[in-house]
Amino acid sequence: MPPRDLFPIPYLIDPRTYAFDDAVSFCVAALIAVLVNAEAQAYVATLLGDSRPGAKDRLHFNAFLHLDLLGGLSFLVGGVGWPKQVHVDPARFRHPTGYLILSRCAGPFANFLMANIAASIVWLLGAFSMDARVFMMVLAVNLTVALYNLLPLPPLAGGSLISALLPEKSERFRGLYEQAGPYLLLAVFLLDRIIDGGIISGRLGPHVQRLFALLIKP
Amino acid sequence: MADKVPGRAWVVTFAGTAINLCLGILYAWSVWAKVLIKEDMAGQLMTGINEGWPFLTNAQAATPFSLCVIMFALLMIPGGRIQDRFGPKVGATTGGLFLALGCIVAGLMRSYAGLVFGIGILGGIGMGIGYAAPTPAALKWFGPHKRGLVAGLVVGGYGGAALYISPLAAYLISSGGLSYSFYFLGILFAAVTIVAGQLLSWPPAGYVPPAAAVKPGAAAAPILTKVDWAAGDMIKTWQFFALVFMFIGTTQSGLLIIANAAGMLAATAKGIPFFDANAWILASYGGLINAVGRVGTGLYSDKIGRGNAYTVNCLVSALCLFALPSVMGARSLFFLFIVVGIAYWQYGGGLALMPAFTGDFFGPKNLGFNYGLVFIGWGLGFFMARLGGTIKDITGSLNWAFYLSGLVLILAVIVCRINKRPSAPGEKPVAAPAKA
Hints:
The complex is a heterodimer.
Chain A: H1 20-48, H2 63-66, H3 69-78, H4 96-127, H5 133-148, H6 157-165, H7 171-194, H8 201-216
Chain B: H1 7-23, H2 29-36, H3 58-86, H4 88-109, H5 112-132, H6 134-139, H7 147-176, H8 178-199, H9 231-234, H10 238-269, H11 273-277, H12 279-304, H13 306-330, H14 333-362, H15 367-374, H16 376-395, H17 399-418
């Protein structure tokens, strides 16, 4: 039997390339990506001054409680998604805007770290001549999430950046922007899928693949 | 005697060991993999007692295992929640039932998909939920001076599973086939976890674990905190980062040795008739030493202190790292066994020591969360281990990776020596203990 091809990156559950084990690995990898993303935001927010002992939405390390309906759906549609909003109270920060951006950006940064850890596990299992396809999936999904967070729509980090930089008086626009963000993202991913990657995955995908190749090489 | 715990406490401890002995099935995966893998016939169906099972490729056989590890890690903390809310009985029983269901599903489906779903997903869920139950339940019965030993005993069962499940599974496969082995183990696990799960219990309300007998003249243990730290306060102390660094130290060195020397050990032992006939020794050597290392390190860390236990483990391991180039150059079987053994011991010992450190420094109440944060060091340790590959590419040999890793380990020991527990906010600074 010839060696099996690697799954497509960014991975999409697609009848044309469907394989049961890859699909299961993808779901598990998505759980990890969501967990890592949300906990990192909470972690950095806590570190920077917004510490709330006993808060229910942070630092519980339960991936299932971080799952967001739209964010989870988006994993199935576009191969990337987002966790339930981690509540951060900028008023508790010394530099509200700057620290808010920092804690939002911690999400994708942690996904990038997780991708590195997964790459290390792939390497380590390689030393035992084990094929670590599952961990490659963890690597791929985390990289994809990290990179797609550049998109300027909330709740992705890029969107939070813009939302935080909006002038004070545009409060109404900001509210609208943050509310519509997830739906817009989902719509864009769906459209992207219909026209076969013409909007996003055609542009960001190659970068994800390049990074993947870089990390997987020893 | 001052440290007399009720008999019930030991019942809970050993019930926990029994449950972990069931959950540790993962360590024996290689036994099934050996039967399932046949690269040139992958996809074709087996005949004989395993009729209906397909042959798998190497890569396919690794998938259920990897998925199981990840699900295990993801479910461990939700599992802790379940046990906090419904008690350890429910946690252990649910975990055992999931694992048993997974085994039976895998046996019934006789396919790759069945293994992915049964062992990978259901098995991982079962292990995660089940693993979270016994250790905290047992720890609540004992005072801090016994924490290391008790945690080691309960957690050690998980590693000890490799010892008996490998031969048992091999026997079941050869006598009744793959499906039979899964049915048998599934029903066995369900029975053991349900029975042992009923023996788990929390101490009655108001129970105070017996404290260590304080020898006259000795300083009362100042290393323990009386305050339960919240994660938010913990991550602002430098001691937290020191613990993370210490975790990086043990993980990276252990993994670096294991990754490079274990393969060579297997290759060197190949062709020696004794090891060909008793392949299980090599297969379970790591798991066994890992398990014994947890219990052993826990035991002596209770006696000589966590910092000293860490120092001993790490300095010996650092010596191994500096000696590794010559050991690997000589391909000496005896020394390879010793070096790999020490690495496994030290790595397992680190996994037993770090939760105890975290508990001592930041209190038992939020130990689950707090330890989760310290555990980041374990993940970063993987990263360090991989740097070895990069160094090999640059210098052409791994020697410098070993030396560097040894230095990091010594640095970690120094950090450990100066790392003393922080005083909690509002607490009076700890008076320096009189020099004993």
